[in-house]
Design a protein that fits this description.
about 300 residues; mainly alpha; Arc Repressor Mutant, subunit A; two-stranded antiparallel ribbon; globular
Length: about 300
């Protein structure tokens, strides 16, 4: 049973411990914050920072990216992984120009109407770019709330209704104007202190009131998490094929793709087919392959 906690200590801790991340600095636009939130999905900060700097220098406004090709976006995405995110950002930029005059809307509902913007991203942009008093929940926030309020070692399977309700309850423990900052502080606490494998409970601002610590830090009794394998997977094969296409300025022959994944031709074909279906790659009339928008379609 979750306990009602006062999360004010997180704010005091965050005022001192906050990392100097570029998308948190004054003058960063809502668009640039949106780009950072999409890039940070399932990707560490250290990998995102250099790519984010390149993107906002090259495409500081939605209109700038909308005028580029989807292939340009995918190539600039580099090795961040999950390159469909680059395609979605490009489609989002086009929609912002067509529907919102090139600006980023401030409400969660309007943000949810954009291509590739889901519940988390919409709430994160509304909160961090516009100061909206809305709960924002990522894996770090879920873990902090599971431990501090519910006494559980892990957050378990996601439940949007339950997770948002728990985050809203935490926000209501601090004054309204400070709630957007608490959302950021809870994320930071989960990233730096209340980590998944080696939590630093002695450094946690909630240590004296944390239900998990009070219970003796019991081990997680729920279902074990599945470890995602990467070596030898279709995802790795896709990445190898994409690396070839990103390294060329135009279409490439099938042979150039075959040589980067020779160990399993059937898997290579499946990976290439999935890239075509996802719209990341297109095939030219003469049978070569290119990034989206960079070759003549059949």
């Amino acid at each position: 049973m979750a306990t009602a906690l006062n999360f004010t200590p997180v704010l005091s801790w965050f005022d001192v411990a906050e990392r100097d991340l570029p998308w948190r600095r004054p003058g960063v636009s809502a668009w640039q914050i949106l780009v950072s939130e999409v890039m940070l999905q399932q990707t560490p900060v250290a990998r995102v920072e250099p790519v984010w700097h390149e993107w906002v220098a090259r495409w500081p406004r939605p209109r700038d990216l909308a005028e580029a090709s989807a292939g340009d976006a995918v190539r600039a995405w580099g090795r961040l992984g999950y390159p469909r995110r680059a395609m979605r950002l490009h489609a989002c930029a086009v929609a912002l120009v067509e529907r919102h005059g090139g600006g980023v809307p401030s409400s969660v509902d309007e943000l949810l109407g954009l291509p590739g913007v889901g519940e988390y991203t919409a709430r994160a942009v509304a909160c961090f770019a516009f100061g909206q008093d809305v709960p924002v929940v990522d894996i770090n926030v879920r873990r902090v709330l599971a431990r501090a309020a519910a006494g559980e070692a892990e957050a378990g399977n996601p439940s949007p209704r339950r997770d948002l309700a728990a985050a809203q309850k935490a926000l209501e423990s601090v004054p309204g104007p400070r709630r957007p900052r608490l959302s950021a502080g809870l994320m930071e606490l989960g990233a730096l202190v209340c980590t998944a494998r080696s939590p630093l409970c002695g450094e946690c601002p909630l240590g004296d009131s944390c239900a998990w610590v009070a219970a003796g830090r019991p081990a997680w009794s729920g279902p074990a998490k599945r470890v995602q394998r990467f070596e030898g997977t279709d995802r790795q094969a896709r990445g190898r094929l994409m690396a070839v296409l990103r390294g060329e300025s135009g279409p490439v022959a099938r042979a150039a793709l075959d040589v980067v994944w020779p160990q399993d031709p059937a898997q290579r074909d499946r990976a290439l087919d999935s890239l075509l279906v996802d719209g990341l790659v297109e095939q030219t009339r003469d049978g070569r392959f290119a990034l989206a928008g960079e070759g003549e379609r059949r």
